[in-house]
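Intended use. Records such as the Alanine--tRNA ligase entry shown here are meant for training and evaluating sequence-to-structure methods. They are not intended to support clinical decisions.
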Amino acid sequence: MKKMTSQEVRQMFLDFFKSKGHTIEPSVSLVPVNDPTLLWINSGVATLKKYFDGSVIPENPRITNAQKAIRTNDIENVGKTARHHTMFEMLGNFSIGDYFRKEAITWGFELLTSPEWFDFPVDKLYMTYYPADKDSYNRWIEVGVAPDHLIPIEDNFWEIGAGPSGPDTEIFFDRGESFDPDNVGIKLLAEDIENDRYIEIWNIVLSQFNADPSVPRSEYQELPHKNIDTGMGLERMVAVIQGAHTNFETDLFMPIIRQIEQLSGKTYDPYGDNMSFKVIADHIRSLSFAIGDGALPGNEGRGYVLRRLLRRAVMHGRKLGITDTFLYKLVKIVGEIMASYYPEVLEKREFIEKIVKREEETFARTIDAGSKLFDEVVDKLKSENQETLDGADIFKLYDTYGFPVELTEELAEDAGFKIDHAGFEAAMTAQQERARAAVVKGGSMNKQSEVLTALQDQSEFSYTQVALSSPLLAIVQDDQRVKAAKGTAQVIFATTPFYAEMGGQVADHGVIKDAAGVVVANVTDVQKAPNGQPLHTVEILTELFEGETYQLAINQHRRNNVIKNHTATHLLHAALHNVLGLHATQAGSLNEVDFLRFDFTHFEAVNADELSEIERQVNEKIWQAIDVLTVETDVDTAKEMGAMALFGEKYGKVVRVVTIGEYSVELCGGTHVSNTSEIGLFKIIKEEGIGSGTRRIMALTGQKAFEAFKAQEAVLKEVQGLVKSPQVSQTASKVESLQLELKAAQKEVESLSAKIASAQSDEIFQSVQTVNGTSYIAEQVTVSDAGGLRNLADIWKQKNSSDVLVLVAKIGEKVNVLVASQSESIKAGNLVKALAPFIDGRGGGKPDMAMAGGNNPAGIAELLDNVGANL
């Protein structure tokens, strides 16, 4: 077996499959694009689903990649086991309807065992297979695997709901008896017993069936195009090759761990309890890559995952004695380790460090709040002579404040308390069930359409024509290719002026006419067929015939509105970079007929001044009447031109570069105005958050923008009339003047209220009652607002008239209650909660003062009568 670095392992895998005719696909962002079924890219095949389900046909059916991935379904195990990670790399080779079992197994064996490649000893490899899959068993025998190294496993069948599925065969490496102290042997593998001896390094999925949950597996239909999907975990492979005790003692993690040693002053022992080192090293990798790909810490979705990872890492830092912010200092070393294949971490290092440090600082304040909660819980237990910390409180500390259970247990034991583990587990289980209920449903692939996949007819989209004549090449109806059709169908023409929806730009609509100019069908949608042809969805008014020539005409008014919005999107993207920074990259867009929507990565709300400047810059470029130019070239040349590739898009050998002067240069396959002046006007109507670290701008152009301005002008004129301003330009100063007058009037009202309160207090504070040794005043008073109640409470406190004060006032149709307490044994918050139901209300507050509101004035008398009973 060759000794290799992680970089060499990754490169050798890719080089091997490149030598077998595979195209190397680059690793894509961890944040899924156009796939709502995934929270993260969680496997090498996740980015290739469109090829496997047949919705897109790749240029080369043989693909290989090294894909970064995140899985967070078992975060708690990271650091406890030798191989759990949140972020990992999956090396894979894929066949889309090309080679199958014979080649996949042969090449897998060759790559692992050939002296030219990894040079693993054959006797150290074991393979599992699906018992009914005799073909895989026989193929392993043919390449030279001994029968006693082939293990049947009933679970070796891959499927996720409906869609492509099939048996899989896994490859394990035997690390020897030193990792099998009880000498259990091959039984560990055969019975799927958790162990450190037999390490799975590769899985080959033989995707050959269309899974159908309604029938037994034995009745699944064969796929029209069989696929191969493999996955080799880089971290495991490197651990085996480098002879590491766990995945963490490899060159992927040890440089991070060495830096943690320097920060903590502690030493990492490969055979000792190193959970905190491992957690920090793993989590900072996930944080660095995910933030670099546009995800940001937050309170929901992937943002919550990142926040949880960061807080867990920080708490383990504290266990190592690191109390200052430190995680951000590890970003650089993460970037350096991965730079050979993933330069983006170092490229975005400054931004990633900024986000991580800011989140650490925020969490430091949260830890203080959590510590206060812990102290309150402990004080309560002591006062109640309890010995056990309740599971619900442990969970609150864990879930809300990020306190690991072991930290809470340690603090509790120091304070002399036990831990309610069962209660905590129950609360955790309830949360997990809520999370499962809220998770995005789906994840399986679509069923292949053999008819659409088989359509090889060449079709071309014309960027320059809005109407043309073209022969009808293919008609598909009810998933069958037909020669003629009525009703609704999908059709392909040799040439078309209809733009197929792509890159956020909606499809063109229009009509199809016969040779006499009579409209015979309406085009209601256009999407890309699996082989890339524009596939028109049509509502046929008469009948369409394959081979006939028709006149195709788009709705020009619709197209004109859409392209104004599309070009404005390019200007907006550039303006965001100028105003917010280069991290504000596109995370999705929609260029519709009436509006544009642009999603981008940013860590906070865009303020009014920033929005104003963004809007100003876009309009400035519109007024400068800049020509919008498009050239076709290759990707490398486009990058030399400074073209910005859009988030998550895949580009072919020939790309279109859209330039708007020197202001914007982007790769884009859409249609655009010829000059920015055609956009007319640009108006932002909304900016909002749509998820952790993702913001959205809604905007209008042209006529719609003008109408928005007119609507605002109408509101302004209405305000002008209401404040009686002679000129629109003087409306703001008039409003300001009225605000000053209102403020003065409010001060006068407050002064009068104070005088009224003082006058009432002489009589009210004479009515003192006593119950169980506690003196109290309970009275209905007349005040204009809740402030009047507080004024009376201030006077009561100064006069020290009683231990407890309860005041009730009917204000309009509502009832307000104030409770104040100077007694150690009477908590105002508890008392107001007990009294509020009498007025159909609720309330709360602090021990010394609390308030409630209700809707039932008829209950005031009963409330006052029951004050003494609740003391």
